[in-house]
Amino acid sequence: MTKSKEEESKSLSKDSKSQSKQELEEGSSNSSTSSVSAAKPRAVMAFIGHINEFDFNKDDWECYTERVEQFFLANDVEDGKKASILLTFIGQNGYSVLRDLCQPDKTGSKSYKELVKLMQNHLSPKPSEMAERYKFQQIKQKVGQSLNDFIVCLQRGAKDCSFENRDISLRDQFVVGLSSDSIKKRLFTESSLTFKKAVEIAMSMEAAEANTAAFHQPNVTERIAKLSISRDNSRPSASNYSSKQNPNFKPMNSQRCTCCGRSNHFTNRCKY
Description:
Elements: H1 2-39, H2 61-75, H3 79-89, H4 91-102, H5 112-123, H6 129-137, H7 147-157, H8 166-177, H9 181-188, H10 195-216, H11 220-234, H12 238-245
Helix pairs in contact: 4-5, 8-10
């Protein structure tokens, strides 16, 4: 009886030791796994594209912010992070300027739109509407300037004019500023003329005039032939040379040698 109790006690001791050993092994395994996961570096989000620092000497602020907004769209940037990304990309000089413009507030308290507006007002104050409209009315098509370039100048000039009807203003200045009188007269005859339609008519007429000029232009062979004929006609003949430059001049066949009587040479050239 005592022996069986001792054996049962030994068996229980072995089981407990085995269980403890198993628990230690599992604990060690979990510890190593957690340490590996903790050592694993955190993944960094990769952005599509990159925005350079803002250069006050070269860059236009409006164009720069348009690129920044395209970057936001491409990377699905949340509204709450836009101001921070702008302040990061803009560079040291840009950040310093915005920091001064925000005083006494902090730059971090401003939204993206507020920061953009502050810099825009600082770099490009809104011009006088009346002055811009006066400049717009002075835009004329220059000699040798294409219609496309003329149209671009008009659209750029109308940017800050705040026209109530931009299309009508562009149409009127386009027609008035054209250098071609024939195209201008043609557009004056149109009713319900829009800016788009005026441009289409002017473009087609300009192309037609260019094609007509090329069609009537003589080729190289014709030019050479006409040039040769004009040169031949400009050379004086022996008969035309006589009275104008030397009243005493007579053609060779009208004079006879006084020595031999022949008319094919002068007396001083006679061999007799």
